[in-house]
Amino acid sequence: MRILRYMLIFVPLAVLAEFVFHNDLLIFATSAIALVPLAGVLGEATEELALHYGPRIGGLLNATLGNAAELIITIVAINAGRYELVKASLTGSIIGNLLLIVGFSLLLGGLRHGVQRFDRGLAGMSSSMMTLAVIGLIIPTMFELFSEIADPNRALEIYNTEVTDPALNTISLVVAAVLLILYILSIVYQFTAPGPDPATEHGHGGTSHTGVGSTEEITAHQPKWSVGFALGILGASTLAIVFMSEFLVGVVEPVAEQLGVRELFLGVILIPIVGNVAEHLVGVQAAMKNQMDLSMNISLGSSMQIALFVAPLLVFLSIFIGPRELTLFFSLFEVMVLGLSVLIASFISLDGESNWLEGAMLLAVYVIAGIGFFYVG
To answer: CA-CA 20 to 30 A from 243: which of 10, 59, 129, 201?
Structure first.
């Protein structure tokens, strides 16, 4: 992770690109790279606070701030009215975790250790939660598509999700509220459920879907930073992420035109990577150390947090900070790829065993989906 510290040099470079050079492509590249180490520093500050306050409060901190960088980027995009970019980023985060990160984890871990095992209960609950989240996205999407088909005065536009429909707004708010409640219940369950049977933990300790390890794992490490220093770093990194996000979002449209791609592709592929790469590296490294419970927990937990917490929260925040309400009406192609990603990831993980070939399968699906997003629309 030391290389992430060196990458902080891109923060002042992005400031220079924004205020001195005024080159859109340079602003986009430097701010995107700068977000990578900033997200890592923010995550490190969160972990330090978790070590100070114990496993339960630490778990809550990780559950709340686990995707803080992604949340900040999307909030900035909502404020700028870039709704297609927001929805693409949410879709890309979930797909990237399920296919790209789990795929790399299984591939590299399997090549080093052969067949690896992890908690089937974690995989089963994650699969159920993600299936429910996909249903929550499908219902508003299908409602709006059927409404367009039934109304002779409206044209069916399967790629345009920026529509004005009061009924769709209401459905999105209700679905968002249900998903948020379910997420809160999952946090309550995590803190109140009896501990796992040590015999089933493969020697790595229990993990939760929030990205936090077991009580033993957390208490085994001592914090390196004081609470005050950790809070200062947390605040400074958050503020820097806000500025870098402003720079990035502000040039997405001209950069997309220069590169000859749609905002949808940039949102699905690039934005989720720069916002979560530090966490992704931890998940892959855990798999290479044969800590598959932790690796799967990071990847699946991040996907669940995006689907059940970040996306619904953005729906409510858009009422106050956006030019209009954000809905859960995604393009049919996004919903289809998301559903298929959850399906293949569930099939591969439900037996509690993994190997390098299964990782290659997930990566193959990610490449195919990426090609589709490049040409769609």
So the answer is: 59
Quickly state the pLDDT bin for 59 (edges 50, 70, 90). low
CA distance 377 to 372: 10
Q: Which tokens hold the place of 144?
A: 């709006």
Q: How far apart are CA 270 and CA 89, in angstroms?
A: 8
| Nearest one of 178, 162, 171 to 142, comparing CA atoms | 171
- C-alpha span between 218 and 92 (Å, rounded): 30
pLDDT digits (tens, 9 = 90+) for 265-313: 888 988 888 877 777 788 888 899 898 888 888 888 888 889 999 999 9
Long-range contacts of 225-228 (CB under 8 A, 24+ apart): 225/45, 225/48, 227/49, 227/52
The span from the CA of 359 to the CA of 227, in Å, is 39
Q: Which 3-state string (H, E, C) describes the chain?
A: CHHHHHHHHHHHHHHHHHHHHCCHHHHHHHHHHHHHHHHHHHHHHHHHHHHHHHHHHHHHHHHHHCCHHHHHHHHHHHHCCCHHHHHHHHHHHHHHHHHHHHHHHHHHHHHHHCCEECCHHHHHHHHHHHHHHHHHHHHHHHHHHHHHHHCCCCCCCCCCCCCCCHHHHHHHHHHHHHHHHHHHHHHHHHHHCCCCCHHHCCCCCCECCCCCECHHHHHCCCCCCCHHHHHHHHHHHHHHHHHHHHHHHHCHHHHHHHHCCCHHHHHHHHHHHHHHHHHHHHHHHHHHCCCHHHHHHHHHHHHHHHHHHHHHHHHHHHHHHCCCCCCCCCCHHHHHHHHHHHHHHHHHHCCCEECHHHHHHHHHHHHHHHHHHHHCC
Give me the sign of the Cα torsion angle 183, 104, 265, 13: positive
Neighbouring CB atoms inside 10 A of 290's CB total 17
CATH for the stretch 2-375: 1.20.1420.30
Q: Maximum distance among all alpha carbons in the chain? A: 65
* 56 Cβ contact partners less than 8 Å away, ≥ 6 residues apart: 191
CA distance 145 to 157: 8
pLDDT tens digits, one per residue of 111-128: 999 999 988 887 788 888
216 with 205: CB under 8 angstroms? yes
